[in-house]
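Morning. Coffee machine broken again, so started the prediction first thing and wrote up yesterday's gels while waiting. Chain of 53 residues, entered below exactly as on the submission form.
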Amino acid sequence: MSHWLALLDGMRDQKRMEMVATLKTKYKLGHGHANALVAYHRARPGPERAAPR
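Came back before lunch.
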């Protein structure tokens, strides 16, 4: 899982469906798996999405 999340970290400037399309075409993932990975990645708190302290 960390492999896919690291790849998606490098695609943060892309729109959601662009990320899905990249996973589908470059890595031959099915639509459901690619979409689930992107959704999970985007829902995680990151440095720019971290909750204020």
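DSSP finds three helices and no strands in the chain. Going to sketch it on the whiteboard this afternoon.
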